[in-house]
Design a protein that fits this description.
363 residues, alpha+beta, Aminopeptidase, Alpha-Beta Plaits, 2 domains, nine-stranded mixed beta sheet, five-stranded antiparallel beta sheet, 9 helices, elongated
Amino acid sequence: MDIKQAIFEEFKQLVAIDSESGNEQPFLEHLYNKFENEFGAECLYDKAGNLIMRVPGAAGKEPILLCCHGDTVKPGIGIEAVMAEDGNITSKGDTILAADDKAGIVEIIWAIRTAKEKGIELPPLEVVITFGEEVGLLGSTALDYSLLKARKGIVIDGGDLNEIVIGGPTHLVYEAQVLGKAAHAAHIPSEGINALKAAANAVATFTVGQVDHETVCNIGRFVCDVATNVIPEKVAIKGEVRSLDESKMLAHWETIKNAFNTEAAAMGATFEILEEKTHYKAYNLDEAHPLVEKLKVILTEMGYDVKAQRILGGTDAANFNTGGIATVVIGTGGKGAHSLTESVNINDMVKVVDILLELLPQL
């Protein structure tokens, strides 16, 4: 069996193990046993439930973090991977593929396996498989960082192989409500205070969408469910603000709160924040960092037009950087994540293995 077919067979096996967010444990157990039996890894779970696998490496070298997440989005039950003649891998069409992020896990496995077979000396590896990444970076947020010695890390959880993610946003999520006063809309409208109108007036005064090149804002829930003859008493709101510059995020959040308070007060209504939570903090790794520079050289030599960039999406790298581990994100080669048309090409998976085999001995 050639390496492409072998990698596909392993990928097919892993995606067939269901691991939708909240139900990752059987999949994590499979990895625990594989790394312990094949690589002699010291495997453990932290108190939160993240899987940490310490793979022995060259004496005297500092350990390197490798991370993927073990959970998938829905529909992710009963996944069956199929590979076309051109090497493109998809599901049968009624589920996601789970290349996000099981392609990355397979790429790590094959980098370690190939190094072992070819006698390539790697540094000690701390392989972390997080849970709940798809529903808010739950695993890396709760991870016990005292169990890790690595000061440099690589998250394999992206798409295009020419991209190196070196920065991400501060992400704030809030739940709130505007409270007015219910009244019959036909008989006594003057006695009502329309919470919906107050909330709508507020939203009309601040930017939703692209605030600037570093900042975005969205409202995902704006609910008022009453009969048409009832003046709305309450509107439930859930939204978020993200920015690569935390001060900009905080400034726009103040604008949002002031808008709701002002417009509510103008109509005799009130604005209440029910929950306000920062999910993760902005980070920005210097392009001159040795990890980034080495990756850029390797990718350039492989023929890629390399882009080191900061993104507004959330990855486990945000929490690792906040936890003191300088971490980048590289792609798995996957495309169309979270969709029934998700795919990854076996040729790209082989390239990621090659990238890891070039990079890790240099660290």
